Model the fold of this input.
Amino acid sequence: MENICQPKPVKMLMVIVDRGKGKKIIKMLNDFGLGYTFAAYGTGTASTEIRTYFGLEESQRDIVFGIVPQEKSKDIMDLLNEKLKLRKPNTGIAFTIPIKCVSSMLALKYMLEQ
Done:
């Protein structure tokens, strides 16, 4: 019997891409079944000279956040790499961070839409 008080492991997904691509990523994540996603604007801190040296264009970024069940995290990362070509330089970055503690079961259920 499954212990309902023991939540399943989750991770915080972060995707950082050029400004304007965040909506596409949120739609992709929602289509995958993640219900709790949101985006914020970010700005890179590198100078124009550094960006030029490394071949980077924009310093304006979209940062997309999502809560991912641990068992789906590899599939989501594979989807992001395939659709966004993240293995190519200057296309963005995606990573996950394990969440070890949440303030309440209610907050966790809200994030996972259960």
Summary: The radius of gyration is 16 Å. Helices lie at 22-32, 48-54, 73-84, 105-112.
